[in-house]
Specification:
single chain, alpha+beta, Alpha-Beta Plaits, 5-stranded antiparallel beta sheet
Length: 127
């Protein structure tokens, strides 16, 4: 069977973490939430300074309210999960996450602030 012409010859594969609010997130006072948010932002900024997070940010309007934000990591899935477990908001149960590979047409995205390569170049396996 010939290769589908709509499938690119090459992909850049990125490690993505999507943060979401769990249904059973603990209720906290406004002051505690403000402190936890400050810790969360500082933790993520530290990962970015180390080059472990390439880009991240919150989601705005959405059809499903629990999604909070997304990060592209410069590491594999296991390391991104380990680092996400260390996020103070995850540790406090206010956030949880999903970690996944995101396959994008090769050279479709650039991360000009990254100090090194981001993602892996791959081809779709032939069936």
């Amino acid at each position: 069977m010939p290769r589908d012409p709509h499938i690119p010859d090459a992909f850049d594969v990125y490690t993505v973490v999507v943060l979401r609010r769990p249904d059973d997130a603990p209720e906290l006072s406004d002051d505690a939430l403000d402190e936890l948010q400050a810790q969360h932002l500082a933790y993520r900024a530290g990962l970015a300074e180390q080059g472990l997070i390439v880009v991240n940010g919150p989601f705005g309007e959405q059809s499903d309210g629990p999604y909070r934000g997304m990060s592209v990591f410069a590491c594999d899935l296991a390391e991104a999960a380990r680092l996400s477990d260390g996020d103070p908001s995850v540790a406090a149960g206010r956030l949880t996450y999903d970690v996944m590979e995101w396959w994008v047409r090769a050279d479709a995205l650039a991360f000009p602030l990254a100090e090194g390569p981001v993602g892996d170049r791959r081809s779709m396996p032939d069936d």
